[in-house]
Amino acid sequence: MARLELINLNKTYSPKVVPVKDISLDVDDGEFLTLLGPSGCGKSTTLRLIAGLEEPTRGKITIGNTDVTNARPGDRNIAMVFQSYALYPHLTVYENLCSGLKLQKVPSAEIKQRVDSAASVLGLDAGLMNRKPGQLSGGQRQRVAVGRALVRRPHVFLLDEPLSNLDALLRERVRADIKQLFAAQRVPVVYVTHDQTEAMTLSTKVAVLNNGYVQQLDPPERIYSHPANQFVAGFVGSPQMNLLTLPCQGRFAMLGDCKINLPELSTVPPQIVLGIRPENVRIPQPGDTQIIHGQVFLVEHLGMHNLVSIKVNSSLKEDITVRALLPTDQRWSDGDISLALAPQSIHWFDVQTGDVFRREKVRV
Q: Can you give the residue ranges of the ABC transporter domain (predicted)?
């Protein structure tokens, strides 16, 4: 077992620059953890701390039962795949694949066996082995970079936005390859990206980071269905979740002229943030009670759905905009529209803190 564990990990460059703040998490054999977040949230710094390319200001890193907090990068038995591929331009594909093994003084016969095995898995045919990186496509260079990590047979794999330099179609294909490939490795994998599609499709669990803190650590399906706070709710999901700051009256939040049942709260605040994903705003069905009325002002065609934006009828001075994913078999043009909110899909957040209000009981 080569379990990776981060314990209260902190990195401080100056009192005002603290990219990693007391991060604690673990990754077991066979788990694929993605560090997801916007630029500057601390995800790449965390990866560099694990790799030993940065020294933590405070905290502990263990691999298996070994404390590697102060160990040199070469002594951690970690393989890293970089965004820029980091291939040696003067070496052939074969030489790039075996470069790390030669430094480890692995016997020649074993080097050939490992390289041939990795090349077969990655679809790098014999005709590519004598080419140099400049003669390869972006996808082929990425496969060589992954192959160089695979032949190392490390305790932990680290991948730093490895797909960001690929075009959309190639990124989708390589993403599927990476998912199958690392599922078979049975060692901890830590993957850094700002692309939520990569995070949701590749991972067994996701750590959403913001301002150096872990906002939520959960399987991807729970990150999507039960966001821990308003930041996670707004960052994960495309199209983005509707997040509406609404006034409260009695036991209701007022969305235009629609009264929406609040969760059971000990004290009802003057305002609350309602979150609902566009796919949960629908054409009214029999029995729906939480129905909003408004006017269509924008229709965006997304292939299988239309993303329809409406301005909700309201007596408030500020316009309230709600977006809905609606079928393409109807025409959605400027004019009046009524839509229903699926009550079981509503999320509630504190206006001040952004934290979620737990919904153990909901009035329906």
A: 4-236
